[in-house]
Design a protein that fits this description.
Order of helices and strands: HHHHHHH
Shape: globular
Strand content: under 5%
Helix content: 55-70%
Structural class: mainly alpha
Distance between the termini: 43 Å
Radius of gyration: 15 Å
Number of strands: 0
């Protein structure tokens, strides 16, 4: 059902935000409702929390999201969207800084 919705959504394959908006009901049915930021972790603290989660551990990731502040969550997502749009090779910090330095600094607080 999710893949059918993705196909009907006309969203680009790599546009997770578009797909989530178009197919929220199907995603919630399959995976449960998305975690919402309602805590007070800063963007940097949220990033650190995520980095301590085992790969593909949704419970850990959701816990970090719930602990983050809405503003921190928005800053983090802005940095991630920028990095994805820059199409940098995985783990290429130099490319990420060159293309998204402002967004990364807004989140992490250092150049």
């Amino acid at each position: 059902a999710i893949y059918d919705c993705f196909d009907r959504s006309m969203c680009a394959e790599n546009d997770a935000e578009c797909r989530q908006m178009a197919c929220q009901m199907q995603l919630d049915t399959c995976f449960g409702p998305a975690a919402m930021p309602m805590g007070n972790l800063s963007c940097s603290e949220f990033n650190n929390c995520l980095s301590n989660c085992p790969d593909n551990n949704r419970d850990c990731t959701d816990n970090c999201i719930r602990q983050s502040s809405p503003a921190a969550f928005a800053l983090f997502n802005a940095a991630i969207r920028c990095i994805e749009a820059a199409d940098c090779p995985p783990n290429d910090a130099q490319c990420q800084q060159l293309n998204c330095g402002n967004e990364i600094q807004a989140c992490l607080g250092f150049p």
